[in-house]
Amino acid sequence: MIPQTNPDGEALGTVMVNALGENPLFEFEQIAHGGTGSAEAMSLWNWMERHLPLACLEYHSYYQVDRPSFRPYLFSTELHRSEGRKTMAEEVAKRLLDISTGPPMIVEVGDERFSRCFPYQLIEHFDTISHFYKLHTRESLEDNLKQTVRVFKTIVEVCERF
């Protein structure tokens, strides 16, 4: 578990931008192909290359008045190379939809913006089951924590079955 991939940006209240004005969220395509990026993104990618997880879930929580909460960002299962991982990813997506109150954001193969982010590159390079999950600061801390645990348990349950 990686608790915060952009700690200085979070502390500054800049949401996704670090203290140098870089947005680590959208640097992973260039890093995955041998380029460079922010210190946060480079460190995370280097760590993942050494540990290759079966599944990865990145939580997001910040205030946007027009965005629903408890919303999965589901990356196309067509990105997966193996049928086993594709099947697992389909089950994770189905189960996340069952426990979410907000509509999903579906990220298709080749999505120009999201193909640069961490989950997409994890799927593309390592066949990792990977998604974003949107919590929301307008929800109570207790409700966000309960949903976080519910989502985590759901993914673990699916992975344990395969």
Short description:
With 162 residues, this protein is an alpha/beta fold. It contains 6 helices and 4 strands. It folds into 2 domains: 1-51, no CATH class; 54-161, no CATH class.
Key phrases:
single chain, 162 residues, alpha/beta, 2 domains, four-stranded mixed beta sheet, 4 strands, 44% helix
Q: What is the beta-strand fraction?
A: 5-15%
- What separation lies between the terminal Cα atoms? 21 Å
- Sheet with the most strands, sense and barrel status: 4 strands, mixed
**Structural class of the secondary structure composition?**
alpha/beta
Q: What is the total domain count?
A: 2
Percent of residues in helical segments?
A: 40-55%
What is the count of helical runs? 6
Low-confidence stretches: none
Radius of gyration: 15 Å
Rounded average pLDDT: 91
How many β strands by DSSP?
4
Order of helices and strands: HHHEEHEHEH
Strand order of the largest sheet: 1-4-2-3
The dominant shape is: globular
Walk me through the structure.
There is one protein chain. The chain is of the alpha/beta class. It has a four-stranded mixed beta sheet with strand order 1-4-2-3, sandwiched between helices. Helices cover 44% and strands 12% of the residues. The chain folds into two domains: 1-51, no CATH class; 54-161, no CATH class.
